[in-house]
Each structure stands twice: as structure tokens, then as C-alpha cells.
Amino acid sequence: MNSIAPPIDLRALQVFVTVCETASMTEAARVLGISQSAISQCIKVLEREHGDVLFDRQMRPLRPNAAGRVLLDRARPLLAHARDVALSVRAATKTSLSLLRIGCVDSFAATIGPALVEQLVGTAENLRMWSGLTPMVSEQLVNRELDLAICTESTVDPERVTQQLLFSERFVAVVPLSHAGAPFVEVARSIPLIRYSRRQMTAQQAERFIRHIGIDAPPMYEFDATDPLLSLVASGRGCALTTPLCLLQARHHLPNVALAPLPESPLAKRHFFLLRRNGEWDDIAKLLADCSIRTLRNEVEPTLRKAMPALPLELFN
């Protein structure tokens, strides 16, 4: 007679994986929203069931030992499969997830985010969309504070996180109306270059392009948001490099600024990536990707071209 396999405590496995990923029982407790004593108890249960310790407790930060690494390699796909089973059952019965957490960079959240929320109505009982800078959003995904993330650059571990290119948008140069038609390189040498804050990925990407086209303007004004940046350009205090989504985010300034031609370059764009932990949320990720591209083509680009007909032909790809 075949023996019955011992039950698998998925909750304890999730706790174990989170401790491994955060390298701390205290941090794992914060991420999972449970007490540290509950974390310790789950680890003790697993160690008792497997007949071996799973962590080298002499190491700091906390790291799994050889037995723990074997369990970690097996636990991740097992948990991912369990989530897929739950999603399939919910889809079959047309029930919704209890919680879905999505993080986006600000310009994406403000322009494409509303369409995503509308698309996801009914998918989750509790839908949360947070916005912030790329480094923060990426870290929250890795720490399991988010389920999916949309960022403009990523340095996450590919063994843990799947990175999917959503689309690219080209940089555009905005200048005061008094400088309309002049090449951006000339304008940036005659009036201050207003920049995004250097803690933003967009600023770092823009800076590479600026230097590539031969502009060496000293820093004078830096902003986290597009609204004050365009406000200064509109008042004639400088010029700036920005993007179509950022323009749409601060569209009330568009009648008071002009576009300036930019040299062609492979660096003249930024990329948007959809991130998710490996093996998780595949169906929702496809839904988000399809909705993002559709919104970009059918809503965002027509709105921008109506406001600024002189925009380059290929804004997104």
C-alpha cells in the first residue's frame, strides 16, 4: 500500500523563503506582517520536520546552510506552483484575489495607471497602486512588499526576478517660447539646463545622453517632479530634457513651452520594465503589459500629439 505523503506547510515555506531573501528574521516579520516569534516558530517547525538546521546562525547577515539552500531551491517553484493553482481556481470560479499590490514610477502611475486600475477592477478585492522612484519600487518588489513593479531601469537579480521590457520612450527637449525652433544643443549653451534630481533613474539616463551630444552644462536647478521643471522653462529661466509621459503628467504647461530638435542617438530614450518575482503573477503581468501598450497607443499618444503637433514621429516603441 502506498504511504500518504506528509503534509507540506506552505505558510512555513513562505516564511523560510522570506527569511532567506531578507537575510533577517526581524525584516521577514516586517515584510510578512507577523511577529518575530511566529517567524522563529515556523523555522523551528521546518527544521524539526526535515531533521536538520537550515541556517548558519553564526553568520551575519543570516544565510541558509547547505541543507537550507537545497530547501530554498525546492521551495520557490513549489510556492509559485501553489499560487498558480490558486489563480487558476479563482479564474475558473470568477472570484477575485484578496490583495494585489503594484508599484510604478510616478510618470507611469499618473498617465497609464488609471487605465490599469480600470482594467483590473474585479481582479482583486483590494487593489493597491503605489508610486515612487525606481530604486524604491524595485526594492519593495524584492522584499515582497509589492507583487509587480513598473520601473525605468532595473539591477535586480535575474535568478529571482523576471524583467520584461514594456516599451521605450524617446527624450524630448523643451525650451522657452522665445527659443522655439533653435537646436537644443545651442539653447543649452545659452541658458541654464534644468535637470531632474540625480537620485532619479530618468536623470541618470538623461545625463548620459546630454554628455553624449556634447552638452557640458553646470548643475543649477534640479527637481524631482516635472511640474516645477516645466514651470521654470515656461517662465524663460532655462531649458530641459524630459519625456512624453512626463509632459503629459504636467500638461497644463504645454501651451507655454516649445520643442527643440535633438540629435539622433541610441541613448535618446528611456525604457520601462515590468518586474515580477520568478514564477509569480504571470497571468496578471500579461494583462498589465497588454493594457499598458493599448493605453499608450490609443490614449496617451493621441492626447500628446493634439497638444504638441511638433512632437517627433516615433515617441514610443
TrEMBL record:
Ranges of residues in domain HTH lysR-type: 8-65
Key words of the record: DNA-binding, Transcription, Transcription regulation
Transmembrane segments annotated in the record for this chain: none
Cross-referenced CDD domains: PBP2_LTTR_substrate (cd05466)
Gene3D superfamilies named in the record: Periplasmic binding protein-like II, Winged helix-like DNA-binding domain superfamily/Winged helix DNA-binding domain
SUPFAM superfamilies recorded: Periplasmic binding protein-like II, Winged helix' DNA-binding domain
GO terms of molecular function: DNA-binding transcription factor activity; transcription cis-regulatory region binding
Coiled-coil intervals: none
Pfam family, one: HTH_1
Xref: PANTHER family: HTH-TYPE TRANSCRIPTIONAL REGULATOR (PTHR30126), HTH-TYPE TRANSCRIPTIONAL REGULATOR GLTR (PTHR30126:SF40)
Family statement: Belongs to the LysR transcriptional regulatory family.
Protein's recorded name: LysR family transcriptional regulator
Taxonomic source organism: Pandoraea communis
Upper taxonomic lineage: Bacteria, Pseudomonadati, Pseudomonadota, Betaproteobacteria, Burkholderiales
